[in-house]
Structure formats: C-alpha cells, structure tokens
Amino acid sequence: MASAPSPEVLRAPLVLEFPFTRSLGPVQSAFLTGLRERTVLGVKTEDGRTLVPPVEYDPVSAEEIRDLVEVGAAGTVTTWAWNHEPRRGQPLDTPFAWVLVKLDGADTSLLHALDVPGPDAVRTGMRVRIRWAAERIGAITDIACFEADDGPAGGGARPHSGEFGDPVTGIVALARLDYTYAPGRAQTAYIKALSEQKTVGERCPSCRKVYVPPRGACPTCGVATAERVEVGPRGTVTTYCIVNIKAKNLDIEVPYVYAHIALDGADLALHARIAGIPYDQVRMGLRVEPVWTEGARFPDHYRPTGEPDADYDTYKELV
Amino acid sequence: MPSAKPSVMRPVRDIAVVAFGQTDHRRSTDELSEVEMLMPVLHQVLAATGLKTSDIGFTCSGSSDYLAGRAFSFTMALDGVGAWPPISESHVEMDGAWALYEAWTKLLTGDADTALVYSYGKSSPGSVRDVLTRQLDPYYVAPLWPDSVALAALQAQALIDAGDADEPALAGVAARSRQDASANSHAQLSGSVAQGVYVVRPLRTGDCPPVGDGAAAVILAAGERARELCERPAWIRGIDHRIEAHGLGVRDLTDSPSSRLAAQRAGAFERPVDTAELHAPFTSQEVVLRKALKLGADVVVNPSGGALAANPVMAAGLIRLGEAAARIHRGESDRALAHATSGPCLQQNLIAVLEGDA
User: Fold this and answer.
1) pTM
2) Does A143 touch chain B (CB under 8 A)?
3) Are B63 and B119 in contact (CB under 8 A)?
4) Test mutation, A56, A83, A212, A225, chain B, max B CBs within 10 A
5) CATH number belonging to domain B128-209+236-355
C-alpha cells in the first residue's frame, strides 16, 4: 500500500480531574483551622520575621519553625493586578484585583482577590480587610476575598498557641484541566482505518519493520515512518495471560484471556482479548481473527480461525 | 545566611554546544504528535554534526505531562531518538535548559563525550494559563487558580510602583523583541505587533508571550570531540541554577537574586558579555533580569526576539541557550549569557556563560 495523503486530523475532548487529598503539617493545620475560626496566624522565622501565610520550614535557614503568632485581619496592598475576565476557579466571578496583602503584624504578603468596583479603586498601599466566607471549612478559600478598609493600620503580631478545637488535618484539592487531544498524523490514520475495520501500520524506511499501531517513528532507527501498510486481519497469539479479577466497569466474565497478537505482516504485537474458545485452551501460536460489533471503533475481541497453529519460528522474534 | 561572596565554579572539562535546531513555532500543531513534531529537529542537529543516534553518549529531555494532559508522555517522544536497544537516557519534568544542565554534568563525569538534549511543548491542547497554576503551592495558592498572566502582572505592577518601569517602557521591550524576531524565521510573532488591550492590567497582550507549540534540540560535546564536530564550538564556561522561596509574598518581585547568584557562580560578572538571551516570557521580566544581571546598554539582548516572539513552554529556555550558542557558532558573538527560567515570576533561574575561541 503506497503512502496516502494524511486524512483530516482527529480531535477529541480530554478532561482531567484530579482530587488530591493532602495532609497538613502542624503549621499549615493551625493556619487553615484558624481561618475557619476567623483568626489569621503567622509563624516567626529564625531572623524574627513573621510569615503570613505561614510555612513549616524557614525559607532562609530551612529549619523547622513552630512559633505561631496572630496577625490582623486587615492590612496593606503591596502590589495588585486588575483581572477584568475572571477564570474558572478564581475567588470571584466578577472583575476583581489580584492583590498581595501584608496583614497588620506580618512581614510578608498573602495572595488573594480584592473586591473593588474597578481598577481606579485599587492602588498599592491601600488598606484592605478580609471578607470571610459564610461557610468555612479550613481552606484558603475561607477568605472569600479582601475588601476596602478605612480603618487605620493595626498593631503587631500577638503570640498564639495555634490550638483550636477539631483541628483541620487535611485538604481536598480539586483540580480540572480541559484539553483537546489530537493524536497526530500516524495515529489519526490508524484510527481512521479502524473505523473501516482495517488495521493499518507504518513501515520504517530504514529497517523495514512494520509498526502497529504506528506512532510516527521507528523506535530502533529514530526516523519517521510514513509508508502505510495494511496488516492482518488474521494474526498469531505470541503470548497471553488469564485474567481472573474482574475489572471495574468492565462487563466481561472472568476468567478470560488477554493476548499479544502479531497480525500478519506486522512486526510488533498488539494486545486484545481472546474469546470463542475456552480460556484454558488458548495457546501460543493460536491463529486468530478480529470480531467486530456493530458501530465499534475497534475489534471487540479476537477468535480462533480454525487454521493450524503457527510454527514457533514464524513469530519467535515478536514474543 | 551565606556570608562569603559566592565563588565561581569552574568546569573540570571543556564542554561545548556544537549544534542547535528548533522547529517553526506555531499556535497549533494538531496534525503532529509530539514525536512527529520533534523528529525533524533531532535529525537537524544530528545532520549538522554528522552523528548518528547510536553515536550519542547520553540523551536527556525536558517536557511536561501537564501540557500534554497525559502521564509519561515523554516516553512516546523517545521513539524519535531510536531508544531501542536501550540507550543511556534521562528526562526532567522541566524546561530543556535543565535537561542540558543534567547532560553537562554527565559529560563532566567523563561517562560520555557527546549528549543529545531536546525538549518540546505543545501548549495548544490545553489552556496554558490554567495548566501553569498547577505548579503552585497546593495549600495556599493553587486553590485560587491565579493564572500565569495574573502572577506576572503582580510582578509588573510592583516594578512600576518601584519606578523601575512604566507601561511605555514595557511596550518598548515588546516592540524591540518582535522587530528583532523579524530576522528569526522560527518566530511565531514578529514585526509590528500591537500592544493591544489589557490581559491582566498592567500587562497587555503585547507584554505577554504568544501561546504555541514547538521543539528544540542541542548537541553537547566535550574537548577535542567538540572541535571535530563544530567549526566554532560554543564553550560552556560556567553554568548554574538557583531557586527562590515558593511563597510569592516572601520574595522581592522587582529583583531576581537567584539569577544574580547563578550568574556569579557561572562567572558571568568576570568580564562583560556581548550578547544575552534572556528567558523573559513577559516584558516586565526582561526589566527585572537586566537589572539583576547588570546588563549594560551595549549588550545585545534577545536578538532572536526571545520568548516574546516564541514561547513553546518547556523548550523556550533551551532555545535561549541554543540561540546564544548559534550566534557564537556563526561568529556573531564571542561571549554570551544565556538564561532560562521556571516557576512563577522568575522563581527559578539558570545561567550559562558561552564563549567562542578567539
């Protein structure tokens, strides 16, 4: 089969969600529990600075630091940026200013959102105070945002034990990222051919091996594969295993056989389920063919063709 | 606190960049998988040196699964280097500049005489502004989803407040970069580009890098091997990387002490450089770096157009090293500084000093 023009590129939405559950160190736990109780804690460093938000280790000396203090719920903007188009997940869904705020009694600044009507209402040095979220769980989002404050600068930091009832010991950090996945030239051609119930590989121009599924490059020679080659549909079981544990969301009765299959003309075995034969009769060398179901995008499984088994020498390089 | 002035670290072996290649950087490369995008660049640097993949002593790459949206995405790219039978290989989930650093240390040990370094990034499948929020502190910062432009804008406003820059000065950096990129056929954005509207004030579209896909590759060689492979090798006289605290509010955003320290240790201040390739994706970050690195008006900064002309994430830092080296290869520079950055607001910085033989 000669190389054909590339078919139109395939695209598909790909959504990644990862709800990480993270445990907290003692300083983080006190800080986030404090937010739940509308109390802002900082931590003293070895050189006497008060870090807000507080961390477990000194940013200069890397020593463990545990000396907690309470700071004010109001402070001063140290820098800002006007966000006229809030994005998903950000603290406010109306235009707002990102701000770094040095809370009264702190020596460092906390990142959050400032709810003001427009960019003309924000400037570095302005006084702001925390607007607490109505429902607080022990998370940075317990601070709903900051708002303008007309009060004077408050006092310094006061010692705090960091002890609260029912301390928060972990957070669940939800995240979602949306992608549009495009598999590229070689894999697009492979998937398109599958939709016509054909299996198409690509031949390396250097070593002449045919890769199925093709990924566009020969991993031995490091060169592009471009010559498309139709392989199969029949093939040979090169090795297999018997699956005895039922996979979640998979409606296949166990035990069943999962096998590596070298399609005729391919130099790389692909893997698929074997059916149409008792699981304990599957063997290396078994000749098989694909079984398609209506509208499927890939073979449902492979079944025996009834041909004599392939000689070991014909597929030993592919085991 | 360290008290003594940091010493310059002198490499125990002469190692040079002997070849550099990069793709044309584009907003989208849907028709190509990562390995399909990368392979022509690998072949370009191999052809430039006459090396085959089997001649390479060590291979190191940089990329990010978060850009691709797939775990272990770099393993697919390995097909492009002919990784079977197994080669001596490593990967960093960072910009390729740090892969180059690892390769440089490998060559220093004497375990290898040549190294292939590559990196690639396809920002087009996802929303890179949001993807980059996932590198932030997961407890106090990431839950607020501050995107990369917002964080750079906070830094830019701090610079403006400090009197280090104003919006016209930032626009000047943008205009100069895109004008210089007119001579760079690989650039994604070049020529006369409007400053545009605010993305996150004070940064306008012109202050921000283009979002795009691309790849780059470099070949390193040691000693005589470098002279065999390249007429005028770009010798790495020093290279170092340093990081600052992750808390944005702990740092002075108008300065880059980690860049300065890395530059000191790389020997950048021993005598002037004629060229600097700075990895400053935002105009304001060039202002910070020029100040931190004490670059005078006589230094040619980002003749390639820099990251404002093409910013394939994970490759843009390696491209700075490659562009600086290529100018030495061509005889357009004798001593160049190359910089790469990682993290928000120039959190982590790598500096290399490259020289050509007289």
Assistant:
1) 0.94
2) no
3) yes
4) A83
5) 3.40.47.10
